[in-house]
Amino acid sequence: MPSEKTIYLPNSNLFKNAYINTFEQYKELHKHSIDNPEEFWGEIAKQFYWETPIDIDKFCTYNFDFRKGPIFTKWFDGATTNISYNLLDRNVRNGHGDKIAYYWEGNHPDDYSRLTYKKLLEQVCKFANVLKSKGIKKGDRVAVYMPMILESIVTLLACARIGAIHSLVFAGFSADSFAERIMDCNARVLITADGVWRGEKHLALKSICDQAMEKCAKSGHNVEHCIVVSHLGRVTSPAGVQLNQSNKTPMRHGRDEWWQDLIETASSLCYPEWLQAEDPLFMLYTSGSTGKPKGVIHTTGGYMVYAATTFKYVFDYKPNEVYWCTADIGWITGHTYVVYGPLANAATSVLFEGTPFYPDNDRFWRVVEKYKVNQFYTAPTAIRALMKFDNELVQRHNLSSLRVLGSVGEPINPEAWMWYYKYVGNEKCSIVDTFWQTETGGHVITPLPGATPMKPGSASFPFFGVQVVLLDECGKEIEGEGEGYLVFNRPWPGLMRTLYNNHDRYENTYFNKFPGYYCTGDGARRDANGYLWVTGRVDDMLNVSGHLMSTAEVESVLTEHRGISEAAVVAKPHPVKGECLYCFVTTNDHTKFDDKLLNELKKLVRERIGPFAQPDVIQNAPQLPKTRSGKIMRRILRKVAINNRNIGDPSKSFTNEMSVITLQFGQCGN
Ligand code: PRX
């Protein structure tokens, strides 16, 4: 295994023509972006169309210090634009109309299609008109619960075209979680599909939406329109699997309508709504350490410029290349690097509906070979699952088109890094270990593939415009080598602006601990060469297969069970998932801790949150260790979790892992 000192240089042949091809060039440009953001970002912003131009006096204003007043960040304030115009109309005008925007690869290898920029624009205009006909206008929220199909991309861009705020919820969340999010953002329109195949598993998306809408109605919130893509009928079912009649999609008269019926008669002309650069583009929920999910708000102008710039430089994307990000659009990775970043660069992407394990465990490599993918972006958990199989599954495919291999969602351990480098990248590709968050909008710490000498396991250096600071417990900046809280002292264009309807929580969560800094909630170490190593969360958050969740959120579900009086959840390291959930529960006097209770608790977590949150271990704890003030001592529980050897039947555990990864990365998520 490589040590911290081992360095891999970018392959000079592959990166001769890289946008940034020396480390010196990166350093110079980074310095320029910090010293003169107006010039650096201004030059980039010129490539986009602004209906009202950027005013240099209002280029970027912010306050990160609550002692000086409310926290805010604004970029290009007063300028107006439309992101769907810039991603579609502008590209069509620049001669990319017949270029393929997406190769769609279905769950079953027999299902595939493609969509050009011109056709995408037409579909987006049509659907934008459908949304308008349902009364949707600028600022309204649209709830989306969709699989990895082309209509999902169309939906997001149609919302953006008319200024509606899309709120996409990952289609692996339960009906309860979805209902909570629909109500929080007060969405009156919901877009979904009848269902989807994931490997050999059928997910009845519309019936999950029905349950969610029922829950909303019980709390007095009515979803007025539900638009459903008819998808199952046009795809191949996995061999031998037949859906029975009861799987037919029920449609409620007056509320539910088929996408295909609505789109047929819609006009393909839709003038874009010119939005303020600081108008919200979308919201996306992320877990909060106190339980209730937070609706992270990203705005139009800054997000557009940042998504475009990170995509271009971090993947070194060149015209005519084919790029593939396996993340589900339900996560920020899908938003920024399946939809907005690639389209802003007129890129050709693969949109993959399936899983890494169907029909065989070489599906990823088959798809890379089929489309001659140049940039491949996935998560460490998927890599760790795939490296368990025979390397021959990789080697039987021609992967010579690959240049850049990306990683996102959690720290990549050196073993997984080496396997990715050696077997997938054939020791010639650059690996970009991209550190970022739902809140950061795009990559903030990452190597650049033609420039940064790589250290396996290190996300390396900040992206342009980003200045990393490490703070000690007292809030003092750590210069040079050292470890501390990972914070930022200034905004870049893609940083979140607020939390939906809750600016106080935004200030408290991200800016309260250290006045003057945005706090990521992660720790990091800077080594002697200045490389940054993200060490993981410093708050009560867990990262299971790249999916962030709070201990509080799982604890509150466990204590909903009438047999449980108290619960504490900690993270336990896991060889594939990165971390898994280790739960301690105290039963009340009348409840026996037996298999029945265990199954009920697991089911409860699946129902309330989603399958990916299912605990790996639930341990009976007649008493939880507490401080004198009554706080649970998680430090002790974490030790117990690490020492516990009772992790159940490993074969079962692997099936479980695969379904979590399938859910999040296969179907295409983080
Ligand atoms: O803990 C960090 C981890 O994932 C968190 C962000 O999760 P989320 O908002 O769901 O967004 C994930 C996709 C961008 C971070 O606070 N994380 C993400 N990428 C890395 C990482 N930790 C280490 N290295 C990474 N490359």
Automatic annotation (TrEMBL):
Chain ranges passing through the membrane: none
Primary subcellular site in the record, as a coarse category: other
EC number from the UniProt entry: 6.2.1.1
Top-level taxonomic group: Eukaryota
Family per similarity comment: Belongs to the tubulin family.
Function: Acts as a positive regulator of hedgehog signaling and regulates ciliary function.
Protein's name according to its UniProt entry: Tubulin delta chain
Organism: Aquatica leii
Origin organism lineage: Eukaryota, Metazoa, Ecdysozoa, Arthropoda, Hexapoda
